[in-house]
Design brief:
By secondary structure, this protein is an alpha/beta fold. The protein contains 10 helices and 7 strands. A 7-stranded mixed sheet has the order 3-2-1-4-5-7-6, sandwiched between helices. Helix 4 links the parallel strand 2 and strand 3.
Length: 302
C-alpha cells in the first residue's frame, strides 16, 4: 500500500484527517453514495453478506463513518436503533450531520481515533465499519478497543477492506483511466474538476496516495479478530469484475466537474456496475477463494 514505510502512526493519522477533511464535500458524488432505496439495498446486502442475517441491533457504533453511508441507511432500514458515528475527520462528520438532518435522522457523532475510543466497556450491540481498517496504523490496538466496547454476544463486522491481491489488480484500471482521463473528458465534453480533482483539489488528491496503510490477506484479518478474543470469525471476498469496472469509471469521473458529465454516461456506469456486481455475487464469490477479490469482509462475535 502507498503509505511510506517510515511514516509514524501520528503522521498517518494526520494525513488521513487532512485528506478526508478536504475530500468530504465531494465524497458522496465521487463514490455514488445514495441514501434512498438503492443505497439501502446496497448496504443491507453487504450487512447480510457479512453477518449471514439481518436482525435489529439496539445500539451500534460505526468506526470511520465518513459521510454516513452505512449508519444512515441502516437507521432508515430499522436495522440499528441508535447510531454513534465516529471518524478521525471532523469534515466527514460535518457532512454526515448535514445528510442526517436532510433525512430527519439524529445519530450521535464523535471525532476520535479508533485506537482510543471514548466509550465505556460493553456499551454497543454492534460495532462495524466500511473501508476503514486499512487506514489504521495500529490494528491490534484498535481491535482491542473494538472488542472492549462490544457487549458479550454482540456482533462485529467490517466490509470493503482491500485484499492484497485484489488491490494490485485494481491498480491496473485506475492507472489506465488516469492516463486516459483528458481524452475521456474531451469525448464526454466534460469540464475539468475544480482545482483539478474532485477530492478537494489536486493538492488534496495527492494525499490519497498516503492515507492507505494496509492491504490484507484473509488470514491476516482473521488473526486480528482472533487475537482480540472474538469468536465465530469469518472472512469472505466481494467484487472482482465490478471492481475493475467501477475503479476505472471512478478514476475518470473524479477528474471532471460532476455537473458536466453526461447523464447517459452516469446511467451506463451505474447499470454496468450493478450488472457486474450480480455476476460476481452469483457466479464468482461462491466459487473463488476470498483472496482473489478486491474487498474482504470480516465478521465475529464477542
Amino acid at each position: 500500500m502507498p503509505a511510506p514505510a517510515t511514516a509514524t502512526a501520528e503522521e498517518i493519522r494526520a494525513v488521513n484527517t487532512s485528506y478526508h477533511d478536504g475530500a468530504a464535500a465531494g465524497y458522496d458524488a465521487k463514490w455514488g453514495i445514495d441514501y434512498g432505496e438503492i443505497g439501502r439495498q446496497q448496504v443491507l446486502g453487504k450487512v447480510r453478506k457479512a453477518l449471514g442475517e439481518l436482525r435489529a441491533f439496539p445500539r451500534a457504533l460505526e468506526i470511520g463513518a465518513g459521510t454516513g453511508y452505512f449508519s444512515l441507511n441502516l437507521l432508515q432500514a430499522g436495522v440499528i436503533g441508535e447510531a454513534v458515528c465516529t471518524d478521525i475527520s471532523p469534515g466527514m462528520l460535518e457532512a454526515l450531520e448535514e445528510n442526517a438532518t436532510r433525512l430527519g435522522l439524529e445519530p450521535e457523532t464523535v471525532a476520535c481515533d479508533a485506537e482510543r475510543l471514548p466509550f465505556p466497556d460493553a456499551s454497543f450491540d454492534l460495532v462495524f465499519g466500511h473501508a476503514v481498517l486499512h487506514h489504521l496504523p495500529n490494528l491490534d490496538r484498535a481491535f482491542s478497543e473494538l472488542t472492549r466496547v462490544l457487549r458479550p454476544g454482540g456482533r462485529l463486522f467490517f466490509a470493503g477492506e482491500p485484499s492484497r491481491h485484489g488491490d494490485r489488480i485494481a491498480d491496473v484500471p485506475k492507472r489506465a483511466a488516469t492516463f486516459m482521463a483528458p481524452a475521456w473528458r474531451r469525448l464526454m465534453r466534460a469540464a475539468p474538476a475544480a482545482d483539478g480533482h474532485a477530492d478537494g483539489g489536486e493538492d488534496n488528491h495527492r494525499l490519497e496516495e498516503l492515507v492507505d496503510v494496509h492491504a490484507f490477506t484473509p488470514d491476516q484479518l482473521k488473526a486480528l479478530a482472533q487475537r482480540a478474543g472474538l469468536a465465530d470469525v469469518r472472512v469472505r471476498g466481494e467484487e472482482l469484475l465490478a471492481n475493475w469496472f467501477g475503479w476505472a469509471n471512478r478514476a475518470l469521473e473524479a477528474t471532471a466537474d460532476p455537473a458536466t458529465v453526461p447523464w447517459a454516461w452516469k446511467v451506463y456506469a451505474f447499470r454496468g456496475y450493478l450488472a457486474l456486481q450480480e455476476v460476481d455475487r452469483r457466479l464468482l464469490e461462491p466459487r473463488l477463494p476470498p483472496a482473489l477479490f478486491y474487498t474482504l469482509f470480516l465478521s465475529g462475535t464477542r
